[in-house]
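Worked example

This section walks through a single chain of length 142. The input is the sequence exactly as stored; nothing has been trimmed or padded.
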Amino acid sequence: CNVSLLNDQFHNCVPNYTEEEKQKAYPILLDPRDLQFESFLGTGKNSHSTTVYKGKLLQTTSSAHNNNIIKTTFKTVAIKIVSGQVVHDQSLPNLSTICKQLQMMYKISGPTGMIRLYGIVLRPCCAIVLQYCSRGSLYQIM
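Given that input, the structure is written out below as tokens.
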């Protein structure tokens, strides 16, 4: 649960995603260097193989209306680390299945009431970046 260690690992990671990984995970593949961990939130309720942190996601957007001025913002997010899931080439069939499910979630996430999925990171470990809910998990609220 060492936040500074995670920040070091993610900020020093050059992901070098393969073309196959980019193709399977588009448009939800994120650069790990765009994440900043702030605090530990908890572990998964159904499985202790996930750890959740509060953090920030660096988002860069450009505007055609303002002569392509690039705007950089930090969005507060929840970062779910899937423990022990370092993605290697031999896990690509499984990656394909996971990415298809996450791409569907990405398409339907947002104002419809579902938690927004911002993307995934495959290196230095598998992490899912989700909308941060300040009131906690659905399990905690109920």
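What to look for: The beta strands are 35-43, 50-63, 69-82, 117-121, 127-131.
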